[in-house]
Amino acid sequence: MNLEEVNRWTASRPTLADALGIEITAVAEGYVEGRMPVDGRTHQPMGLLHGGASVAFAETLGSIAAACRVDRTKQATVGLEINANHLKGVRTGWVRGRATPVHVGRSTQVWEIRITHEETGALVCISRITMAVIDLPTTPGKTA
């Protein structure tokens, strides 16, 4: 999928990414990039970027990246595990994320997501997501 196709696909229904203001900005064979605002939607009570928002951002990028690597008419990708290390607090502006493949196999994919502060370039969070590749059910009497 290219950027236009991803944005059309993700805009087809309301999602958590919409609520958090996540935007997908680039899609290529080796990565997916996006950005997320640091504001009231993504703050924790102390006015810092919420760690859960960073994880949701990482999972969004990794999930889209994984889906781009399969034939979505025959397979889907679903999250198995995600982890994150929160390295630096951010109060305002935007964070940028980039998902890159660590392993793209037949039944699993592993993606690394690096989240940086847009203005300073400081590494804010590093995350890794493992995705399962599953076959979609076939309709009886229909061939793929």
TrEMBL record:
InterPro entries: HotDog_dom_sf, PAAI_dom, Thioestr_dom. GO terms for cellular component: cytosol. Keywords: Hydrolase. GO terms for molecular function: 1,4-dihydroxy-2-naphthoyl-CoA thioesterase activity. Residues 46-121 form the Thioesterase domain. It comes from the Bacteria. The keyword Hydrolase applies. The keyword Hydrolase applies. NCBIfam families: unchar_dom_1. Belongs to the thioesterase PaaI family. This is Thioesterase. The lineage of its organism: Bacteria, Pseudomonadati, Bacteroidota, Cytophagia, Cytophagales.
